[in-house]
Amino acid sequence: MDADVLDDGNLRLEFTTTGEDSQGQVHEMRATYRPDSALPIAHLHPQQSEHFSVLEGEMWCLVDGVETTLRAGDSIDIPAGSVHQMRNPGAENAVVTWQTRPALRTGEFHRELAVARRSGDISAVLAVVSEYSDVFVVAPQA
What is the pLDDT of residues 78-128, one digit of tens each? Predict the structure, then answer.
């Protein structure tokens, strides 16, 4: 598998600009969410904002308790510290441009998380989440 393409069958991430490419300014990916994709755990990024632009399909978003459905041509900005989740509820792939600013260790986090998830060892996944708490924090559960 190419180091800059990660695919778990639910979500395909293609790194298009890394922190190294942009002097730390942005990590950008072309993300393909498969039909009826799984909902990730509610989470936040303590020091990073995100911008998502939908190129194809539709995305359901929950940001700080507010639900939104985005379609091709729509975009959303998620401020640092905002609790959020996103998924593709549709029957077709959803393709988005996903930017994280500043880049920090976003690329490394996604690479390490992919390895841990492939191992099937939940303790490995939790270790990655703990190690990268500067870029990803599981939101308190209600």
Answer: 999 999 999 999 999 999 999 999 999 999 999 999 999 999 999 999 999
- pLDDT, tens digit, for every residue of 12-46? 999 999 999 999 999 999 999 999 999 999 999 99
Q: What is the CATH number of the domain that holds 53?
A: 2.60.120.10
The number of folded domains in the chain is 1
Residue 123 φ then ψ, to 5°: -65, -30
Q: Assess if residue 117 is contained within a domain.
A: no
